[in-house]
Amino acid sequence: MKHVGSLIAFLIVTASAAAFGAAFGPGSWYDEIAKPGWTPPDWLFGPVWTLLYAMIAIAGWRLWTRRARPALALWVVQLVLNALWSWIFFGLHNLGLAFADIALLWLAIVATIVLARRPDPWAAGLLVPYLLWVTFAAALNFSIWQMNSIG
Fold first, then answer.
1. Closest Cα to residue 42, out of 148, 140, 151, 111?
2. pLDDT the model gives residue 7
3. If you average pLDDT over every residue of the chain, what do you get?
4. Interval 45-60 mean pLDDT
5. Other beta carbons within 10 Å of 120
6. Which of 19, 120, 135, 17 is nearest to 76 (CA)?
7. Which residues contact 1 (CB under 8 A, 6 or more apart)?
8. Cα–Cα distances in angstroms (integers) from residue 90 to residues 16, 78, 86, in the given order
9. pLDDT value of residue 1
């Protein structure tokens, strides 16, 4: 019970990052661009991200309670990169820069998992589904970028 307040804080911080990203929703622009046939339906993203954000928050909180500062610092980096991706992709419509961001995000998640494994294997494990989804999202981002490139 002594860490309930900090868990709530991590949930709020993570939800804030999610809300920032959600402010730049797909919109009509996304509906009109070319996408590969394996693009998931729009309705799938909300439930998947809700679950992933909860897991991300709990992982960060667990790292904080174990004073795993290097892993926690990377946790913050990945959360910022995560929030920026939506702004770059959906807000700026810059597919190439969004791919660069998601590549850095992928590396930050991997590094967070590696650094979290020793102080908290559970925190590391909570981030694995996130890594898998971001891997898929990076492939999708790359494909969309290539399909919509001029030249």
1. 140
2. 94
3. 95
4. 97
5. 19
6. 17
7. none
8. 18, 18, 5
9. 60
Angle between helices 42-65 and 121-147 (to 10 degrees): 150
Q: Which two tokens stand for residue 59?
A: 């992982």
Cβ-contact 74, 115 below 8 angstroms:
yes
Which pair of structure tokens corresponds to residue 42?
């729009």
Tokens (6 digits) for 148: 């919509």
Cα angle, residue 32 at apex, residues 21 and 23 outer, rounded to 5°: 15
Both tokens of 53, joined, read: 């954000």
Would you say how long the chain is, in residues?
A: 151
17 contacts 80 by C-beta, under 8 angstroms:
yes
Place of tokens 């993203």: 45
Contact 133, 48 (CB under 8 A): yes
Per the CB < 8 A criterion, the answer to whether 95 and 26 are in contact is no
The beta strands (E) that lie in the chain are given as none
Give CA–CA dist 66/69, Å, rounded.
Answer: 9
| Rg of the chain on CA atoms, in Å | 16
Cβ proximity of 74 and 112 under 8 Å: yes
Q: How far apart are CA 89 and CA 132, in angstroms?
A: 19
